[in-house]
Amino acid sequence: MKIEKLALMLVTTLVSSATAAVVSAQTVFIPEGSANSVLAVSAEGGKSIRRIEGLDSVHGLSGANEKGILVVGSLSEVEGIGQDDIKPENISAEDHEAHHGSSSGQKSSRQGPTSILSIVRSDTGDVVRTIAVPGAVHHTAVSSDERFAVATHPSEGGISIVDLASFKLESFVPTGSSPNYAVLGAAANLVYVSNAGNGTISEVDLDKGIVLRNFPVNHVPEHMVMNVQDNILYAADSDAGLVVELDIATGKTLRSFKLDGEIHGLDLASDGDRLLVSGTGTDKLNSIDLNTGEVVHVPLSPSPYHLTAVQGTNRVFVSSRAEPIVWILDADSLKVEKAIEIQGEGHQMTVMR
After folding, report:
1. What is the CA radius of gyration of the chain?
2. Which ranges of the chain does DSSP label H, i.e. alpha helix?
3. Which of 5, 82, 89, 106 is the most buried (most CB within 10 A)?
């Protein structure tokens, strides 16, 4: 019996050590907007690792852990550039031509406003590929099976779907007026898009490239987060200071949480029982207990903006819209542990292992 207990203790210790190693090895990538760069910092302590430069007006950012790549979206638009006209500096002209010759066979016929999705190695910061997409990129997302990347285009009324094996733009899917944010669902082929211009959230099938359902929410949905386990989506109405809780199975709004003033970013804490929301207009960080509906808020100044919780830890990263800083807070106590100086503005942050 003593041997069995010792063996169990050893296994538990090894599992705990392995989990701790994974958590400590996580990296937070912070897009720096007008600085045309992405800053990589350690999730534990916020120590600077590297700065990835030469990424024009980066706003949307997401990652594929197994592939070891970042999907970086530019908010800048250029006129009349097709996909084949763009070549990363670290790729030869021959390789670039071979890639596009085999994948598309012809140059893009699109002549309207175009922006760039950059595929970047998360370990080195090297640009692997650049892909022209229609209109400025606001936010990006990667499917859980890492087959697809999604980019929202508010000015174009839809999303781009990119194949992450071929790096081809597979399709452009109209979703509604001013699509803002995209989050992945319980099924790897489903993505949910907030259409701020018409108060709906679209469910899109990535394989088929079509909208399956539209959910009216009677508000202006912008940033969102998905509780995949319970199939519940939370969407922020920024100006109204309201968070809507949507049941994906039925498409019905379950609850709404009223907060004071303008809000922006939101994410689920690691325990899944609390929703953290940045109060941009009130200089507060809000924590909503999803079991009781109780809201706790603490001062955080100036202008807390984008927000990302590091899963498996109690850390939450929050950028400021007014100053070039990102705060690291304890998600339980809501106390600031550290402030990181950045360049430009901190937009859609993502965490990579």
Report:
1. 20
2. 2-24, 93-103
3. 82
